[in-house]
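Whiteboard transcription, Tuesday session. T.W. wrote the structure tokens on the left side:
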């Protein structure tokens, strides 16, 4: 249980307001939004060409719980070209993503169980309920800033690898 300290001299109504304001600060401050401080650095992901050469790399935040996957990059207002999010699912399946409450246009990269790029939804529209689907069953999805895949020549058939901290 969360204990919120408040001054002992407060009246009942003042205590109620103190508790309510403190809870609001916890909720707002603890949403996991990265808009102010950048993404959490959980590891590094590299994109590899068909020949095994590194074409690009990003620092990644991992989303591997249902809550983290549901939150994704919602609320983010700035994303650097050197960062992204890796969604890890416990199973292989067809995946669908949308951009609700996402303020930054993204490239959404669907990755197979053997870590090969299946397809890419380039330049996903911000603040949209449009759904972007994997063309085949996927176990992983990577989100990076829109234009990243074109700039680095990432395409279906390429592979990815990552190291987590």
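and on the right, the sequence the group agreed on:
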């Amino acid at each position: 249980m969360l204990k919120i300290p408040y001054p002992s001299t407060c009246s009942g109504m003042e205590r109620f307001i103190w508790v309510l304001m403190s809870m609001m600060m916890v909720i707002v401050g603890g949403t996991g939004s990265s808009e102010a401080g950048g993404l959490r650095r959980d590891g590094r992901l590299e994109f590899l060409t068909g020949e095994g050469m590194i074409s690009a790399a990003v620092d990644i935040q991992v989303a591997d719980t249902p809550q983290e996957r549901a939150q994704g990059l919602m609320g983010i207002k700035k994303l650097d070209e050197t960062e992204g999010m890796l969604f890890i699912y416990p199973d292989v399946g067809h995946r669908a993503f949308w951009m609700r409450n996402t303020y930054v246009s993204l490239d959404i990269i669907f990755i197979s169980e053997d870590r090969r790029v299946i397809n890419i939804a380039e330049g996903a529209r911000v603040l949209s309920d449009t759904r972007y689907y994997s063309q085949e069953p996927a176990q992983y999805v990577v989100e990076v800033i829109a234009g990243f895949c074109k700039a680095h020549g990432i395409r279906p058939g390429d592979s990815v690898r990552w190291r987590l901290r």
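Someone added at the bottom: Residues 1-30 form one domain.
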